[in-house]
């Protein structure tokens, strides 16, 4: 049996990290977006996908207009009341460049307040308890989203149909204890689907599988799946849906022989906890292919450009 990876050890703390973040949400309230503010949320890689999920949640909860951008694609001509930057390392070049250019009030959510981002942002939210040594991000990113979700709960802006962070943490504990089906680990290709706030989770799931396992993965808004991507689905390939699937999609996946995973719809596991299962899957697939998920190819913990 493989020795638990550093990535695996860190992702296992997520339920506790989310509960800590929920408690921190009230203390950090002044640094987080206020009701009615027009907000941009930025990041690179995994934090960008968490930004997408939060932006969709915040708007759906009626808290205010919210856009999410990769830091390198920020539209400087637009006006915002606040910019929120998510950066685990606090050293990512594109994020620091952005914070240095804007005159907008800014908040940084980071895992390391000793890094340059502390001086670049107007306000800080310290998630050092969820920082990681791993190159592949798991617990920091989901904890940042848990923090932002918990703040929406406190503001009475939790969208209809979205559970509490406390319930998500309970689901994550169960997700960590469940055995992964062997046939899923053996799949040669994975397509992740989401809608609304879960689209960002689907994009992140695809990234985790590519980073840790070098797996062939794709991710799409769920309704887009039938507009082309279904052509690659076949026996030995998986389709994983976050949240409720569009009507008829499950039957179409089954009709072409795909392995469907759809456990986070109404009454099922919280979609954020479902992402924890993908974290575990990425490690299992990597190890089954003789890869080390702690040492992903061509990647470093932070991208720092000259």
Largest sheet: 5 strands, parallel
Low-confidence stretches: none
CATH class of the largest domain reads: Alpha Beta
Q: Could you give the count of β-strands?
A: 9
The CATH homologous superfamily of the largest domain is named Glucose-6-phosphate isomerase like protein, domain 1
Tell me the Rg in angstroms: 19 Å
Helix/sheet category = alpha/beta
Span from first to last CA? Answer: 42 Å
- Strand sequence of the main sheet, in spatial order? 2-1-3-4-5
Q: What's the overall average pLDDT, rounded?
A: 94
What tags apply to this protein structure?
306 residues, alpha/beta, Rossmann fold, 2 domains, five-stranded parallel sheet, 9 strands
Quick summary:
40% of the residues lie in helices and 15% in strands. The protein contains eleven helices and nine strands. The protein has a five-stranded parallel β-sheet with strand order 2-1-3-4-5, with helices on both faces.
How is the topology of this model organized?
Layout: H1 6-11, H2 14-27, E1 39-43, H3 46-60, E2 66-70, E3 82-87, H4 93-101, E4 106-110, H5 117-120, E5 123-126, H6 139-154, H7 165-177, H8 182-185, E6 189-194, H9 198-213, E7 216-221, E8 237-241, H10 249-255, E9 259-261, H11 271-288
Parallel strand pairs: 1-2, 1-3, 3-4, 4-5, 6-7, 6-8, 8-9
Helix pairs in contact: 2-6, 2-7, 3-6, 3-9, 7-11, 9-11
